Amino acid sequence: MMERVQPKPLPPHNLPELRQVGKPLRRVDALGKAVGATVYAADYSMPNMLHAKVLRSTVPSARITRLDVSKAHALPGVVCILTNEDAPNAKLNTDMPGQTGKKARSGSDAPVLAKDVVRYVGEPIALVAAESLALAEQALGLIEIDYDELPGVYSPEEALKPGAPILFEPDNAVARWKIRKGNLEAGMAEADVIVESTFKMPFLEHCYLEPDAGVGWVDEQGVINIRVATQVVEHFRSVARALGVPQNRIRIRGTMVGGGFGSKEDITVEIFLALLARVTGRPVKLVYTREEVFTSTAKRHPFTITHRTGVKRNGKITAAQINMIADSGAYPYLSPYVLLYATGMAAGPYKIDNLHVDSVAAATNRTFTSAFRGFGGPQAAVGYEQQMDEIAKALGMDPLAVRRANYMTTGDTTGTGQVIGSAVWPEECLTRAIAALGERTPDTPTRKIGRGFSSTFQSYGRITWFHDTSHAWVGIEMDGTVVIRCGVPDIGAGQSNSLCQIVAEILGVPLAQVTIYATDSAVTPLAGTSTATRQLYMSGNAVTMAADHVRKTLVGRAALEFGVSEEQVDLADARAFVKGDESTSIPFPDLVTKCAAEGLELAHLSQFNAPFTNGIDPETGQGDIWPDFTFGAQAVEVAIDLETGQIELLKSAACHDVGRAINKAAVIGQIAGGSHQGLGYALMEDHEFNGGVPRTTSFADYLIPTTVDFPTTEVIVLESGTGVGPFGAKGIGEPALTPAAPAVANAVADALGVRIPELPFTPKRVLEAIDKRRQKKDG
Amino acid sequence: MNSRLIHLTVNGKSHEVAVAPNAVLLHTLRDLGYTDVKNGCEIGECGACAVFLNGEAVNSCMVLAWQADHAEIVTNAGLGTMDKPHPIQEAFADAGAIQCGFCTPGMVISTKALLDRNPDPTEEEIREALSGNLCRCTGYGQIVEAVRLAAERLRRSSSSPASSLREAADDVTALGEQGPSQHEERGEPHSDARILPVSEQKEVR
Amino acid sequence: MTLPAFEVLQPESLQEALAVLAANPRVHPVCGGTNLIVDVRAGKIHPETVVDLSRLDALRGITVSEDEIRIGAATPIAEIERNQTIRRCVPLLAACCKTFANTLIRNRATIGGNLVNAAPCADTAPALLVLDAQVELTSASGARWVPLEEFLVGAFQTTRRSDELLTTVRFPLPPANALGGFRKMGLRKISCMAKVDVAVYLELDDNGVCRKAHIALGAAAPVALRAEEAEEALKGQLLTAEAAVPAKQGLTGEPLVQKTIEEAARLTAESTLPRAGSEYKRQVVYGLTRRILTACAKGGNR
Predict the structure, then answer these.
(1) I want to staple A68 with a disulfide (CB 3.0 to 4.6 A). Which of A144, A674, A688, C265 is the partner?
(2) B24 interface with C at CB cutoff 8 Å
(3) Which residues pair with B45 in a beta bridge?
(4) pLDDT band for position A153 (50/70/90)?
(5) The pLDDT of residue A56 is above 50
(6) How close, in Å, is residue C255 to chain A by CA atoms?
(7) 8 A C-beta contact, residue A636 and residue A646
(8) CA nearest C194: which of C265, C286, C123, C96?
(9) How many domains does chain A have?
(10) In chain C, positions 98-117, which contact chain A (CB-CB < 8 Å)?
(11) C190 vs B27, B66, B131: nearest CB
(12) Which residues contact A165 (CB under 8 A, 6 or more apart)?
């Protein structure tokens, strides 16, 4: 980037000043966590509690020829052992967690406990409950199992070849999507240059600090209770189905989650606990070991993405053809939807009239892949943003200019023909991120500097044909304190705090006077999953609706009291007062007492609906998929050590339009944290397999960034106010991660003059690329 | 394997507990109710289980319980409570350094170990001191700010305890004025990475 | 996860500990526990009895005399790193300790534990090799000193007899003008196993000519080893550009020094790593060695 980049001016927009929303207030959950008072799932204990362990497959593809639990049963202190025989109908409905009324895709049901066949290392086979953890572990060792190993498939390419061993009939193609927009041939014919590239990315592990855990018990009403670290309270439906009991007889009590990032969106310990609690009649606790988290919970989908793009000399894209192949692992879980996200966002935030995308997710005998922050969007971005730079290189053009020539604007349609109605600010974000890098660091003889950036978009809100809803209840107590009841799971991003801050704003009470009761399927209105960057949007809007009802009551009654119109009344500091004449006021306890005496509504339950659509055309992929998108960008500077191949990240800056920040510190934390995960994606994370056997099953082998690896990403927050969330908010949870890895990829290519086609950029790959380039130059 | 009674002093409280020779301190502490000590990996890679053992910050998953016999142990919960948080804990809460919170107890322990030795650390020293504590949520930036804030507050309160209340109020006002405020043009925000949040409680005071 | 069952003996004195070892050659010593617990959990070792040395203060501490430095085997890595004498007189060892695992592990892991475990990637090994370190092996029947390069004989293999404990590490106190450095290369900046460690120790005379050169590699082979060919090549060579010296091969000053350094780095890489499959590691060794030698030549980075 030779020119000095100026931030693109923002269009005039005026966001109303708010008293609490937007401020970096201390979060309601912060102090409890700081002093170690917050209780997480593994911290719970109950009287008479048993400890559970799961016996898991040690081979990736096999028939179980013998399973003998008798010796384990005979161990004193072992209370219960369950195999598939004991729960033959227990299946994991691994499709669309938390959603009602849809038929499961065929083949998507993983057995809770493997019956005859195991399809991945780590697949659950038996459950043990014993008086102590040590005994349960010992019992596990006494279970005798013989495997007859079967041929398996260990890459999606292999899996799709004719004659390959099939995991589920009729073939290993778990899902396919396609986009047919415009006229590809005509578009390619129009092009001056055609650029073709292929990019590869690996399995990743979420590495949340809290291993999956829970406690299950049957209460005095016979209801099965599951205390669990989960992103989805609505899993009670799946648990009920697996156990063959009515849905209103399972209660999920979610805890503060120690990180989820999509992995705790799947059912993990819930059904195991429900089965054991029901059979033993005692509370049962199950805590995964870290090794178990690596082998037996969801991973990010590996993708191989090929771009073939026709461009004119002026940089304008005339046609794009994109092929994607993803590894679904041994069971589908959310693969069809991850693939959809990648497909829908395959072409990036660019206006492309002639677009073909073909994507397939194939089953292999490896750990199942499912949701991980971004859900296919980050993989798509690794493809499209590197391709934009390759196009620039082929044309001899500035990479920023190529993007400018193709950016979408508000009112344009995406690759699936969805109109984006909110602010489309990719250039506004990108120019600010680049400008934040400042002066380029000079090269030294052994250190080559590179700069790169990426412009990305990521959906927020769930797929609209899921007909997503969220509920929240807001009420005010007689002393003026406020209560929120909402099923929202808090997975650390401030989900519950945002709702409190919104309600505090609307009702005019200090944040400290708002309490939220959350995440209990029996007593808190269901708010849907903490996934898909949907909670602020969905539950934020639900609490806004509910709080508005209560506000209306207070304002109305106060207006009557003051003898003024409602427009002249405002609420703040737990009082109602006349605007411009604050001495005319009434404190909330008095106001609420009056309202209560008159039977006015002091609490309200609201339901917020996302747009309800009907799906996309299966042939063309055209149709609306998501409520809206968040645009963002990242720019980084790297220094490549030409002797060791090590990459040092010197600077990183990210800019996102979040619509409206509810808690500024939380938004910064999300962007900085998401960025760090994306940087790890590019530079050090790789969940490796030897055939079907996972090799990196601890934090010693699978490396994530520490405090000293990267400088903190500088965060620039833009607020267009045009989101469909509360106060014009968009979502940031997933978008925060999306631009990081592609920015690094482009910086590394800038430094080396050659592109490393596969993530992560290990020192070995860097030195190989340098060698290759030297050979090309010499040869 | 015969259990033995070992004697632990944890957060000032005496415990006599029978543990097997292969017991690990992390589990012994958690079984005693000190669940603020977190189990993240059990192989000393993540730091979530960090405690003070006779004054040194260590991974409790790497200490055999018997090795801790007669030791003084301090966990994060021993440093402060909801009613009376330790300045380090308060700084973490104020600086937005806590998201899921699972790494926080270990981070606080490593922070205290640093500030006890080095009351005015550079950013590099802060990052180095916390290099054994993994966090997956925050990207570490706000954690570094929290340590800086804690160091500043601890230095102030140790130098002049009487004026610390007034100065703490000043620090809150100053924090409140940083970054985009009502006076700033919505159209041109600047980098927000260094904003520190205002504590609601302190405002009321 | 519960560790597999084992007994723990906790002797109150070194004598008692040695008696335990004499009586039962299969006991497994433990001190910081940072290797034992990980290895037991991974099923790499299955001790029946573990003898805890962590309470033996006699095994802990750093003593400096006129001509040598002694470090007790039970001294935590953090203590070595923080020690002002080590930082001043043997900065290459302090630098090595700073790259060791992470801050929390360093408070428990001991120098003795690192050496007796003898992992190929043991970080302290190359640093101590270039310092000509010796280890003291003590048993109930006496003590013996063994040069470190004779002690480490293979991956996870040492010459420690089963009735012996490694009790002390010693090495000559470097002269005030000694130079050296330590670099570790891993896939992450900290808290990871070394892919390659390089340690260098140099003594130059007043003319800047190399009188003593020690170079050692860790993690590149089953055992940390000295790069003797490179060391030979450096002896008698000019390593400080400023000193006046007759032209050699048409080069004087800095280019001559650079050439010498590059040659030594090349020899280090090629002599220590097998031909097959280590091209990448050879390049890294070359780069790290060249870098340390260059820093030494510039007078810094002791």
Answers:
(1) A144
(2) yes
(3) none
(4) very high
(5) yes
(6) 15
(7) no
(8) C123
(9) 2
(10) 102
(11) B131
(12) A61, A150, A151, A152, A153
Chain B residues within an 8 Å CB radius of C29 = none
In 3D, which of A85, A206, A139 has the Cα closest to residue A681? A206
User: Are B21 and C107 inside 8 Å of each other by CB?
Assistant: no
Residues of A in contact with C283 (CB under 8 A): 643-645, 767
A205 within domain boundaries? no
Pairwise CB contact (< 8 Å): B197 & A42: no
Show the tokens assigned to A204.
């990743």
- Residue among C196, C155, C214 at smallest CA distance from C282: C196
In a domain, A662, yes or no: yes
Catalogue all structural domains in chain B, each as residue range(s) with its CATH number.
4-78+168-192 (3.10.20.30), 87-165 (1.10.150.120)
Same domain membership, residue A657 and residue A552 = no
A455 and A502 both lie in a single domain = no
Angstrom distances, CA of residue A195 to CA of A105, A191, A317, A319: 37, 10, 10, 11
CB B103 within 8 Å of CB A40:
no
Q: What is the mean pLDDT of residues C136-155?
A: 97
Q: Is A684 in contact with C188 (Cβ distance < 8 A)?
A: yes
**B99–chain A nearest CA distance, Å:** 4
Q: Are residues A779 and A659 in the same domain?
A: yes
Give per-residue pLDDT as tens, A309-336: 999 999 999 999 999 999 999 999 999 9
Return residues 87-116 of B near C (CB < 8 Å): 110, 113
- How high is the mean pLDDT of chain A? 95
pLDDT band at residue A12 using 50, 70 and 90 as cut-offs: confident
Alpha-carbon gap: C132 to the closest alpha carbon of chain A (Å):
27
Contact A704 B127 (CB under 8 A): no
Length, in residues, of chain B? 205
pLDDT tens, position by position, A401-423 = 999 999 999 999 999 999 999 99
Give the count of beta carbons closer than 10 Å to the beta carbon of residue C241.
17
| Token pair listed for B8 | 């632990």
C52/B59 Cβ within 8 A: no
pTM value is: 0.95
Return the ∠ at Cα C39 (arms to C35 and C45), rounded to 5°: 120
Full domain range(s) for residue A601: 469-609
What is the Cα–Cα distance from A173 to A328, expressed in whole angstroms?
Answer: 9
pLDDT at residue number C280: 86
Chain C CB contacts of A292 below 8 Å: none
Residue A30 has pLDDT above 80, yes or no: yes
- Out of A559, A574, A609, pick the residue that ends a domain: A609
